[in-house]
Amino acid sequence: MTAAMTGKVALITGGGSGIGRAACLAFARAGASVVVADIVAQGGNSTVELIKDTGGEAVFVPTDVTVGKQVQHLVQTAVDTYGGLDFAFNNAGIEGAQTGLVDCTEEEWQRVIAVDLTGVWLCMKHEIPAMLQRGGGAIVNTSSVMGLVGAPSIPGYIAAKHGVAGLTREAALEFARSNIRVNAVCPGAIHTPMIDRLLAAGTSEEFLTAPQAIARLGKPEEIAAAVVWLCSDAAAFVTGVAMPVDGGWMAQ
Question: Is the pTM of this model over 0.90?
Fold first, then answer.
């Protein structure tokens, strides 16, 4: 896999922490040059330093994925810096406030949808033309097990993550014959800053891991490994899949 990704270019949003950072490091280990995008400069720059400390090549581009011009600049930076774009992991996301459907404000709904769904659409809107110029590519979007099943009190998140799964299938069908594969990963409960915030707010780890047959929190590196595989030639016949990486959650 390392040889296959040498000379390739990978773009990762939300690359400053958690699953995004783990994916940046995994693509770098596989030989790709990495374009790290995040709204938080400190995290993004730290990821670039980690990659360069291990001999990899990376650049940080501060990006708000809800702003089309910033996403366009992100993709253009990848092309200008490394000559093209081969892989994209559209991972930036927020969990939003825990609130019932009726009590959810319009502002909260729009905030979550903007980041978690519109952000993925904007990324693909600008990534795909760059990949077409390259002759093809592979995209992975971050959905969630919450994009495959329902749960109360997180209406915006549920809607957005279901939307990502559907948008992934649409894009896969539209661009399959242009040699662009599009898949999604659907993580379960993974030990990330998002989960740390839930734990700090009083949610127990036992509650989070109860639905997972493998009775523990997943690791960001375990999601990253799936993402790199989906982008690799080993997954050349895989497209349009919303793949659970969930410790057995969806097997029930």
Answer: yes
